[in-house]
Design goal:
single chain; 105 residues; alpha+beta; two-stranded parallel sheet
Length: 105
């Protein structure tokens, strides 16, 4: 059950993760539907695209934003960012100082 919150009211954050190795299984579509439903219920929503190679969810958000702008519709969109690795991950067993992961927004 979704409960509407008043502005300025703080609560604990919830994390919803959608994942599946198979492409085309509906992860991005489901994520956007959940995000919009939460927004319509008065919740604050932020989304993160961790697939820095495909960026399907990020493209979905950008296309929705562009379409809303072109059609002058006020569509609700979550705060969104795509996290990209600055360099490839190394094995966690590597004990070299340069092996730490660098993240950029």
């Amino acid at each position: 059950m979704l409960m509407q919150t008043s502005q300025g009211q703080s609560g604990s954050a919830h994390v919803v993760v959608l994942g599946n190795e198979k492409g085309g299984s509906g992860k991005s579509t489901t994520a956007l539907h959940i995000a919009v439903a939460l927004l319509k219920a008065g919740q604050r929503v932020a989304t993160i695209d961790l697939d820095c190679r495909q960026q399907s969810f990020t493209r979905y958000i950008n296309n929705r934003r562009a379409w809303a702008r072109r059609t002058s519709l006020d569509l609700q969109l979550p705060v969104h960012c795509c996290i990209k690795l600055a360099r490839p991950c190394r094995s966690p067993t590597t004990n070299h100082p340069s092996s730490s992961n660098s993240w950029t927004r």
